[in-house]
Amino acid sequence: MRTLPLTRKRLSVRSVVAATLVTVTTVVLAIFAAPDYFARRQMEMTRLRRVNRAQTSELAVALAVPVWNIDRAQIDRILDSQSEVQAIAGIVVAAAGKTHARTRDARWHFVPKNRVFAAADLIVDEQPIVFNREKIGTVRIYTTPKFVERELRNTLMRIIGVILVVDVLLIVVVYLVLWRVVLRPLMSIERYAVAVSAGDQRESAPAVAGSAAELESLGTSIETMVHLLELREERFRSIFESVDDAILILDAENMRLLDVNPGMGAMFGYTREEAKQLEAGSISSGVPPYTPENAREVLRGVTPKGRLLEWQMRRKDGSLFWVEVNVRSAMIDGTPRAVAVVRDITARREMEDALRRSERMSVMGSLVAGVAHEVRNPLFGIAAALDAFEAEFGSGPEQAEYIEVLRNDVGRLNRLMQDLLDYGRPHETVRRTQSLRPVLAETLRVCAPRAKEKRIEIKQDVDGALPEASIDADRMLQVFKNVVENAIDFSAPGSDVTIRGRGDGNGALLLTVADHGPGFPPADLAHVFEPFFSRRPGGSGLGLAIAQKIVAEHHGTIAAMNGERGGGMIEIVIPSESEGPGRVGLRGTFVGAPPEPQVPRSRSG
Questions:
Q1: Which of 16, 228, 312, 599 is most buried by a 10 A CB count?
Q2: What pTM value is reported for the model?
Q3: Residue 438 in contact with residue 471, Cβ under 8 Å?
Q4: Of 216, 222, 214, which is closest to residue 196 (Cα–Cα)?
Q5: Tens-digit pLDDT profile for residues 259-276
Q6: Contacting residues for 142 by C-beta, under 8 A, at least 6 apart
Q7: All domains of the chain, ordered by start, with CATH?
């Protein structure tokens, strides 16, 4: 696999070097300039306070005589004379119960003011007015620091300008030196690395001769690393292409297949180009819980530690098989991906299932033999005794009710024995490639009496282009008879049971039987095909188990579920070309119905 492309960073080496030089130079100059600036600021503010104090003292002396004489005109002239001092924002003289004030207007002109004003952000100094050692009033001068601050700002801007000039000069000088020794070789190495990571083998090795020794060593190391990566890529590609297991690389977001190895084609029947058009859910069997939705949920939850699980898959031809999947997340091309290694374990599962079936059949055989010995002979005796009783004493009204009950019970027990024999004894499957339409038509005929008895209408919705399949018609009729009768038993009188058939688009036949009954309880869905599992009083629990056994002989699947609008639904999938145990003969047609064992049906069989 090609080495992963490198992602270009937004900041180039030149930008990093320039930014570093500017930052370091600015910080150094600022460290040296800042103390001088703050010392000057402190000095200017101290000087402003001293000047303000001196001006206040001088003004207090000048106002002593006019205030003593209560010469208001002279007081006003003295106050107006202070307008030439630009820093003074206001003056307030308080004497003899009167206040004389001056303040600045918007154009910074002195104007009279008859009340005391706020001194926010101003420097205030107050001095007594003394005449003949007697305090006759006070004077306050309000000084603004804004002119000093303006000068300080100008000084700060000059400092910043000097720092910028020094920065530019330093950058130019250092950059010219670095360009020859560092930057040009680094750019050459970067171009080479990006080209190699993108798979461009035409890019020549980086030109680092004459650069710093460290860069020459780096360039050599990169060339060696690229060579090693090419060797590892070749080794990985060889393993990827030759391994028998299927390897799938999927998009972690939409679960589409991005790349597969030849093992996937051999296992699933798709070419690599076809596989890249698929998504993970489309190769799941679709049989709950192995649905596309569950497959996507599993893949979205994988971690780098990985997860090992067994799953049921569907080949291109529609046949189902079991696999062991080892799936984990990985970063490929800087994007999260899911990597799945898929191993076909159908043979192992078949061996395990065969062993379980063998053990179950062994127990079933013993049970059937014992039941046949212990029950059927007495049942025949009871039936014979009933016939003799009826022949001897007749079937008058008094006896008829009891005779009918006994005959029904004997018939129910005989049907149960037949179910046990059907499930327990081996059958030779004779399959022929033929249409399922005659089988479905015969199913309707066989189930019609029971449907009529319960006032159930059996509807058929079969695609006109329904593919043919290799089936044993007699055995497949048993499947549909059991499933349809089970649906009839759980349908409300006056409702309908619908049989639908179509191709699933993958070379298999999809048939469903849906009713309008109460549906399957969620807790029972995992057990409906187990032998002897039944929720209906009097049910044998073998009808759906027998159906599953026959469908499995045809390498198909059968699943129970609930319909979107209520009611139960059985879905049967049969490959159009079945392989495996059983005999496949010439093309043929369904020629007759099998014996009807009259199996009593329940929601689970």
A1: 599
A2: 0.39
A3: no
A4: 222
A5: 899 888 889 999 989 988
A6: 88, 89, 90, 91, 92, 117, 119, 122, 123, 124
A7: 1-242 (no CATH), 243-344 (3.30.450.20), 349-419 (no CATH), 428-584 (3.30.565.10)
